[in-house]
Specification:
Low-confidence stretches: 1-10
Helix content: 10-25%
Strand content: 25-35%
Number of strands: 12
Shape: globular
């Protein structure tokens, strides 16, 4: 059974998925910022204080609305190495998302340049100078609800949220990108893989809310690295 951090402001029920001398991996709840902002002290600062760690370094980011696996390093050298793996696209990442809209296509590649839009939002352009690329599969769960298995090939701000909006299926609860109203934005960082000191690590963390209807997922999704992902043309 994973450890659960004691209740504290902004830290209720945060599960520690894995912890070594080099890194900390948690299941981040939705609605919490990873950095200090005007609304709270930020997850990294709170974790470092509560766990009494001398240092804690954010390796990657998740949006405030996004739940799931968040990796933090305990030493600067480890943070640099893991950061390189993200930058060089050697980190294995898979996300889940829910939508109540019918997509223009049920699987494939979503690609295009990310352009700034109004009030901190982004939009996908049909150009390909420095495109955001997302591979995906989807599956109907009934009652108009569809689940998406997402593989971000690149790592742009709001990439997955914009990608799904661009195919007519904004994420359930993602009000910024016209998603159907819900108690949260249903985007979850489900699976993470990386190497450290020559040792491979693979972790998965299922979302908890009943809306995900896990019994309806395709069986082959259990091993996402083995799926025949849509082709990326160079």
């Amino acid at each position: 059974m994973p450890d659960i951090l004691p209740n504290e402001t902004c830290l209720a029920d945060i599960r520690i998925v894995a912890q070594t001398d080099d890194f900390l991996l948690i299941n981040k709840p939705p609605g919490i910022s990873v950095h200090k902002d005007d609304q709270d002290a930020g997850l990294v600062m709170l974790l470092q204080t509560q766990l009494q760690l001398p240092a804690l370094y954010l390796v990657h980011r998740l949006d405030r609305m996004t739940s799931g696996l968040l990796l933090l390093a305990k030493r600067k050298a480890v943070a640099a190495e893991l950061g390189r793996q993200f930058a060089e696209r050697r980190m294995v990442k898979f996300y889940m998302a829910l939508s109540q809209a019918k997509p223009k296509k049920k699987q494939g590649l979503i690609s295009g340049d990310m352009l700034k839009a109004r009030r901190g939002s982004w939009k996908l352009a049909p150009t390909a100078e420095n495109p955001a690329r997302t591979q995906f599969f989807s599956h109907g769960l009934g009652d108009g609800l569809r689940i998406f298995l997402l593989r971000p090939v690149t790592g742009k701000t709001h990439q997955l949220r914009v990608a799904l909006k661009s195919i007519g299926a904004p994420i359930l609860g993602d009000s910024r990108y016209s998603g159907t109203a819900a108690e949260r934005g249903f985007l979850h960082a489900w699976y993470l893989g990386f190497e450290l000191d020559g040792k491979p690590y693979r972790y998965s963390c299922l979302p908890e809310e009943s809306q995900w209807r896990q019994e309806g997922w395709p069986a082959q999704w259990a091993e996402p690295e083995l799926l025949a992902w849509p082709e990326i043309k160079k």
